[in-house]
Every structure is written in structure tokens, then in C-alpha cells.
Amino acid sequence: YESVENSGIGSNGLTSARHDLLHHDYLHRYPESVDASVDSSLQYSGQFHLNESLHEVLGSSLGLAPHASRDGLDFGRWLLSPTRTYAPLISSLLRDIGTEGLHGMVHCSGGGQTKVLHFVKNLEVIKDDCFEIPPLFALIQKITGTTWQEMYRVFNMGHRLELYLPESLVAPALDWGKHYGIAAKVVGRVGQAINNSTSLQIKGPEGILQYNA
To answer: Is the pLDDT at 92 greater than 80, yes or no?
Structure first.
């Protein structure tokens, strides 16, 4: 939807992201932007400034080569990328396939990749083919040392909208994603849980992450 790269933050964990990544200078420049009850060592504890070149930040921190989609983009605009709306996609999809076969939709905010656990019972959700982790989330993890277990609990980590539907409806769903220029794929599956438990497995960079409702 934009002419430049969107970081994918989606207002998901934005408070954590800005304090983890932005320089302590901003605490003194904008004291009204913080909660005074929080330890000052945790307020704007990062090393980056809003006007830094995104190419330089990602190159020095993650070793990423410059990419045309980031030309002229500064770190601040990238970090504060607008939240994309999926309304056009959802509207077209529902008109096409209806709601009868659609088991659910989850917007992965307020719980990141674990949000689905709020809406299922006695099921096992397995996400074993997620998208590649976007640079923003890789940067946050590297700078803060946050565990992958927690990263997937807080951030969307690469996809923000999930559709839960039967295999017969996968193809039209993927076609609509392609129509709107939105990367889409099957990231996992849902099965009956053992012992009436409710759980989620995510294949992360360092192995399987287990979450229970």
C-alpha cells in the first residue's frame, strides 16, 4: 500500500519497540512521552535516532545490504510505519467464499503470534512454516536479547492477519492476497489436542516454541 518499505510493526508492541531501539536523548527531549513510574533506565534505552539512514542502521546492526525499497528512508519513518488495513482484502474474500467455510480470522496484535490461543479450545495450533522474520523484529531481538519465546508473544513477527479455513478454500484465499499485492501462504495447521488441552507450537529460528492456553 506504500511506495516505500513498511517495517510491519502494525502498532504491535510499538511502545516496547520505541523504548528498546530509540536513543536515551529522547527521554530528555520529550519527557511527556514516557510513563514517569517506569524506571528511567528502561525509557528510550536504545542507540538509534529517528533521522538516521535506514540503510546504515540495518547494515551496521544486521549486516543487510542496501535495498531499493529503503532508498531515502530514515529509521524513524520506518519504525513508525503506518498500520496497513486488510479491509479491502477481507471484503473481497468474504464476497467470494462467504463465511460458512471460514472458521476464523485473527489479527495478530495484542498477543502477537499467540493471540489465536484466546479463541480456540481443545485444539492444537501448529505454525511450522512462518514467514521470514522481518528486519525490524530481528533488530529488536538482537539489540535487547529478548528470547524468541517472548518475541513471538509480543510481536507479529512477519504476518499480521491469519485466516483459519479448510484446505479447499486455501487457493482462493491465496489468490486474493496476490490480487492485492499482499504476501500470503499456508503457515500451519490445526488439529485436535491431546488430553483436552489447548496449545500452540511455533517453529522459531532456534527450534520449536511451545505455548499453552
So the answer is: yes
Phi, psi (rounded to 5 degrees) for 17: -60, -45
- C-alpha cell recorded at residue 104: 476464523
Start-to-end CA distance of the chain, whole Å, equals: 35
- Tell me how far apart the alpha carbons of residues 44 and 48 are, in angstroms, rounded to a whole number: 9
CA–chain centroid gap for 54, Å, is 19
Secondary structure letter of residue 118 according to DSSP = G
Domains of the chain: 14-79 (no CATH), 87-212 (3.90.650.10)
Identify whether the C-beta of residue 136 lies closer than 8 Å to the C-beta of residue 10.
no
Total-model pTM:
0.92
Nearest to 157 by CA among 122, 195, 130, 185: 130
Number of residues written out for the chain: 213
On whether the CB atoms of residues 200 and 125 are closer than 8 A, the answer is yes
pLDDT given at position 101: 86
Phi, psi (degrees; rounded to nearest 5) at 77: -65, -35
CB count within 10 Å of CB 92 equals: 15
Q: Which among 210, 193, 191, 98 is positioned nearest to 152, based on CA atoms?
A: 210
Contact predicate 140/152, CB 8 Å: no
